[in-house]
Amino acid sequence: MVSSEGSSRLRERARRNYGYIEREVISEGKRSVLSNHRIDDFDSVLLIASAPRGGSSLLFDVLRHHERTCSLDGEHDRWFMLHDLCYPTFESDVIPADFDSFDGETLGRDLLAEVGATERAGEHTHRVDNTLVRLPLQFPDRELPYEWIRDRLLDGVPLDEVLRELDISPLQYDEYATRDAPHPLGNETIEDRPFVSSHDHKRALREDDFERTLVLKASGDAYRLPWIRNQLLPETDVTLVHLTRNPAASINGLYDGWRLNRGFQTYDVGDLDLEGYDGSLWCYDLPPGWTTEGDLIDVCLLQWLQAHRHILDARDAFDDVLRVRFEDVLTDTPSVVQEVLEFAGLGESALLSENVDDPNEVMTTKEPRRARWRDREDLIQGTLDRADGTYSEVVERLGYTAESEWI
């Protein structure tokens, strides 16, 4: 999220510190798994693709509570960024389907670094290990006392207390972001804020866990689906769920996120002159056709439009795709989740059922409320009225032509 030269420096420091943690700090069991396995050792992957602010964090959080799944903590973009598989290597977040100039062995191992298996009892050591492997990506410019942090966390000291002792604001973590920060959080990080912690029902991987289904989601995947299918996971059974959300609600969520001191910054693309935004960094995904000038609300429309257009165009790379509406996730969560489980070949899960009945609140920008976008209806409707034919085509293909259904 800094200049190209500065980003390269941060990646080098993050790689150095992460390598040290991988060799010396995390538990012996985790070191053994990372030495012998890669992400493509899983027999099957359930991949959720959506536009940013499309509800994928909620659906992902529910599904990662299934006791036959494994998952990362949140999105995996940070590992692609660590390997420079992002802007400015590419002009946008699009990775060409035939791009093969990357270290698949190391990337495959790094993507596995924080994966855990879901089990009701969970495992405190796994949560500590996951915190440690991600700290260099969250704070690459700081030399942190990793062994001291590990000891404190293993002793049961809460993460937010450890962060405060290191003069780090817990507001940078989704788990503790109960309010907007009083000022911008800064930009020298590889992992996108807000940072997501491991849930309490995960444990370290074992050899037989690779027979489970790995659940993955990152909004940036909308622009790299054929590459994931053809290059990253060519031999893996990948099941794709396309999660949609009406343009007004998504655009409204994006507009909120850009203007909050909560994080969501991704790239330094140079000086920004966007009406409605006074920050200095790009937020969320970087779609083809991005611009540094104009109205923020139009950028939010572009981010929704391009993400779903690319997902729709990538369908042929997969044997089958299940399309799910986030509106249905909100109004009939059990039925939608059951549909996804059947599509992915997953059975019942008591732990997941409990989470469906009482889902966590994750990655929210404002208090959830139906049709909250109508609070700025004139602004949103204005940008939709200016949209070109591509917008109309995508809206029709996604089945959002009836505005009365935009909740």
Automatic annotation (TrEMBL):
It comes from the Archaea. InterPro entries: P-loop_NTPase (IPR027417). This is Sulfotransferase domain-containing protein. The lineage of its organism: Archaea, Methanobacteriati, Methanobacteriota, Stenosarchaea group, Halobacteria.
